[in-house]
Structure formats: structure tokens, C-alpha cells
Amino acid sequence: MLMKQIRVGLLALLFVAAGAVGVQPAAAISAVSAGASSVGPQANPQPTPAPKVKPAAKPKPKPKPAAKPKPKPKPKPVPAAKPPVKPTVAFGPAVKTSLVPSPWSWQDTGPALAGLSCSAPTNCVAVGVGGVGMRITGPAPDVAWSTPVPGLTPPAQLADVSCAGANCLAISNAGLANTTATVSGVYASTNGGATWGARTTLPVAGPGKSQLASAISCSGATCAIVGVGGGVWLSKNAGGSWTPSVAGSSLGIGFLDVACPTSATCVAVGAAGKSAVITTATSTAKAIAAPGAGPFQSVACQSATACTASDSLGKLLGITAPFATWTVLGIAPEAAVVLALTCPATQNTCVGITSASVVYLPAGSKNWESVPIGSKSLTDISCAGTNCVAVGDGAAVYASSTAGLTWTAVNEVGTTSTIDCDAAGHCLAGGGFTPMGATASGGRYWSVVSDIAAETIICSNWPSCLSLGQTSASLTTDGGLNWRSRIGAGANYSGPSGYDCVATDVCFGAGGSVIYTTTDGATSGWWSSRIPPAAAAGAKLAGISCPTPTRCLAGGDTGVYIGVPTITPAVGPTTSVTWQWTISPLVLNTATATVPGQKVAAINCGGATCIAAGPGGLLAMTTNAGASWTKYAVPTSATTPSDFAAAICQSNVTCLAGGLGLLYSTANAGTSWSTSPVPATTTVSGFACPGPKNCVAIGSTSLVGTSS
Q1: I want to staple 118 with a disulfide (CB 3.0 to 4.6 A). Which of 95, 283, 315, 384 is the partner?
Q2: Is residue 448 within 8 Å of residue 409, measured between CB atoms?
Q3: Is residue 388 very low, low, confident or very high in pLDDT (cuts 50, 70, 90)?
Q4: What pLDDT score was predicted for residue 61?
């Protein structure tokens, strides 16, 4: 795999080499040597075999009684080394660098989808944050991204959409401040949402009314837009031009949703349990009585003469022509608030979404039923016949071909912090306690494959991947669908914070001031020992990266340490692992002098070029595997420092670093840097690069990047 720089060739020969391949030997580094440290396994002089775990589909056999191990001495502690000192070749001031135009372009493939319209079972269009859209075809949906709306940048977004065949109208600017200065735009697509063009902006709706739109609905060529500031706009030429409804805008209702059962009539609902019926021919409007209703949430119409609405009290309400009074139809299961409704006329059924499920009203019944859907982030729903689609945060798309009775996840991007990809664009991503996601398209589309909590994912030979955490380890051989337990490294000490694998089963971990080693993919255990200079200073290691199988760089709150492992024997069962450690010239904090906020939060190598990044704007690079470093002062805000949390060197010249609202890159080993626009609320916490010109950045979303 390209991301980890596969290093499996001549592995046996590399393990017996005393120095690094293609870099300066450890003895030549201008730093203080800390000596060698020997290590032992977690519990016994040799790693203890773990009982084999069979796939979950088969019952586990009872393990045979293990032979009673002989009493063993605990690993002898390594003699304390002198506290690390700044090397004689210490850092001068950080190299100031100006930003150059970025060669990278990034697409957010996990935006929040806010609006949805299905005009046919094979024609659904979703719109959302950043002016992006997604076309959904089916009944077994395929998905494809539309091009972003030109000129629409955050915090502006597409808020709602209404389609009639391939002709769609979308409105923008929901989520912006509700002031008279806010003006929503209306955008049109004639190819089912593939591309969008600006149609017009909304005119002033009346004195003191904002031009902020919240929902749109069309019936034929007649369309209505309503706004949270009380505005009502009508069009009789499929959105070509818009005229404010003075009567509707004067009702003093902050509208949230609208539905037009016919071209002559629209029903709008809003705050404080208020609603209105709009007669399009005369642009008149009349308030509708709603006894006992709370603030309305959504409205949909199942026929030309009947509509259904939901409120914030969990009630479902119905109204029929001439649309004068609402009546309570029932309460949603567990009084859950129904956020959005759709009522396909051919089914005589209404389907809605709550924060955690789908509710539906079977034909001929007044009892609403609930169906778990598998996502808690859905925001809108639409059905055409028995085919329904629900969308939400993280580009979530769920589909049903049974009018909402059963659902299938089509696409969803979760919050993740670790990712690995192969050259074909197969990736696994996870982190913390969030579900694990998989993509076969280099990060463009995702599916949830497992609930396993992964802290580090390493895919050495897709579909085989290791999930490694501080106290747990698992192996999948089918791209994340099924997992078998392995032995975690955290039985001794607190466990690693980061890992790197130099071959399929040879992995190193770093955490606290301890280095962990497995030579059989965590099957039989881990060897562990402290880094002497780090232990003396009480360092906390955040990660490790190995440019070769016999040279690793471990980074943490005191700087970077260089280790040379020796595994004996190089072939066959491992009997011992020893490390020779050296203090790298990148020393940030010492026992006598600390620099607040300076620590290595992420470290990664691409060949002999490595990058170390961290909070407080820390950005440093080496082109000789740690023998010397250059520290960079990238432009940063005085009030919002550049706190980097993730980094990767894609090659010997291309490296990237990211954090909260940050995405920096260099294409010439640090000679110059560039930055890409990232919303201030977007977090970048991990990288993977399937190819030499493309990378995936993960965190609060999924960003797919392409370099020119």
C-alpha cells in the first residue's frame, strides 16, 4: 500500500542490519546516545500464544487447558539514562515561509444533506452544505455527486429542493442569520441535479421581512417558497421569476415548511403552532386553526385534498380541504419528534423520520409504527411510490423499497481519526467509539461495515487489515465486515497511542515512554520496553513511523527519538527484541526548559523524508530520516494558532498536515508551503494516500484531494 510505503522486500536481511538503509547510521547522528535496551514479552520470556478465535458464525470450542507456565522473573528495568539535553546543533529560529498557491483541490464527501426530493423511484436529488448535491437512482440506489453550485461557499448552503422529473429547483442560505440583509438564491437544474445554474434571488417580501428561504414546494409550474422571517414567494413559471405574497408575508408566521397538493393551493407550517393555506391564483393566504398543536416541524400532502403535519410535541396532525382546521391523528411512538414527512399519494401512507428511527402510518390505520433505521443523523425523507430515501449529516443516504418498512444504508461518513488505503482506493476508517467505515472509491462514497472501535487501522494486504488500539487488537480478512480478536498491547503499561507496521505481521507501537513490538500480527503477544531517554524525562509518545524496517522515529511531548530494532532471530519464532535509541535533534522540551504547547502530535515518513506536526503551529521536516530537522513558521492567526493533529509524507517531497480548520501541504520537501480552504469547524485528524496524486483526509468529514 502506498500510504505506509510497503517494506516487505528483503525483510529478513534488513532485520539483521545494524544501521538504517539509505540513511545515515545512528552513530553519525549529532545527538546524545542513550544506549541499547532489551525487552521482554508481556508476561513470559517468550510471547504467550493466544487461543485461536474462530469466526463469529461458528460456536467457539472450549480452549484446551494451557500448560502451567514456569514462574518467570519480571523484565529487568532499564537503568535510567541521563535526562535528554538539547543537542549541540540546536534549532535556531523557525524558518519563515510564505504560502504559495496549492496544487491540491479537495472535495468534501461527507457534507450534511439538508433537503431531498424524489420525483420518481429512479430520480431523487439531495442538496446540502457547501452547495453540493447528490443524485440518487434506484430502486436499489446508486449515488453520484453533482457539481457544486457556482459561487456558493460556507456558511451558505442549499437548504431544500423540489423536482419534477429532471427539472429541479433548490434554495440557498438556510442557517445564516435571519436579518433583512440575508438574501436567498434560487438555483435550477435541468438534468436531475447533475449540474446547477443560478436562476434568481428572492425579492423583498415586505417591510421588515428577511429574504431568507427555508423550504420550497412545486406542483407543476407553480412553486411556493416560505421563509423563517415570515416571507412567502410564488412562481407560476417553474421558478423563472418570483413574486412575494403580501397576504402570506403579513401573517407574522415564521414558516419552516411548505407543501403544495395542487397548483392552486399550498399549505405552509411554522413556529408557535401556526400555519396558513395559500391560494396561488390570487396570492392570498389565510391562517389555519391548530388547537393544541406545538411548533410545527414538517408538512406533506398525500392527495389533492389531504395533508399531514408533525409538531415538536410528537403529535401527527391531519387536514383536509378546504384546509381550515388541523385535527390530531395520533402521537408518534415514544412521542418522538418527527423531523420530516413524506406522503406518497399512491400508497395512502405517510412516512417520517425522527432522530433515531422511521415512523410510518399504515394505510387504513391511525396507529403510527416505528422502525429503527440505523442512523441518528437524518434530516429529510422523500418517497416515490414504495421507494423511499432518507438523507442527513455525513452525506448519509438510506433507501427503502418497502415504503419505509425496511431500510438499507447506501452512503454515510462518520467522524473518524484513523484510515488506511491500498493503491486501488479501498480504505478502512475508524476511530474511538464511532462505527468503522469502508470505501472502494478512494473516499468518495462510504458504507458502515462494523461497530468495532478502531484507534489505528493498518491494511498491509487488502482486504486483510489490523485494527490496533491501546488495549485491543483485531484482524479482518474481508475488508472490515468480520473481525477476529488478537492480543492487545496494553496488558503492560498503558498501551500505544500510535502504530506502524513494516511488514504484514511486524508492527511497532509507541505510547507513554514505551515501545511495543509484535512479529506475528498480535497473534501471540507484544514485547515492550521503555525508551531510556524518554523515560528519564517522563515523556509521552504520540506515535511512531518507520522509514525502513530497521529505523523508526517515535514522537511525543519532548521531541523525536530514533530507534534501531534488532529482532532475533530474523527468521522463525522471535526470542528477543532489542532497540538502540538515540535522541533526535528535534528536541522540543527538556527536563530543565519547556516550551509550552510544543509537542509532536503526529509523525510520518515517506522514505527518508519525515514530517512532525503538533499544537502551537509545530511543523518540522527531515529529509535524512531524522539526522537533522528544519522547523517552519507557517502563517498563523494570533487568536487561533495552527494546532496540527495529523500529518503524512506521501513521498520524499510531498507532505501534508492538518488540524481544526487546517490543511497545509508542501510539494518540495518544505521549501514552500500551501494551504487549502477548510471550514473553521472541519477537523482533519488523519490521512491516507491511495496514489501519488490523490489523498483522503478524514476527521469530522471525508475530504478527497487531488494534486495537479
Answers
A1: 384
A2: yes
A3: very high
A4: 41
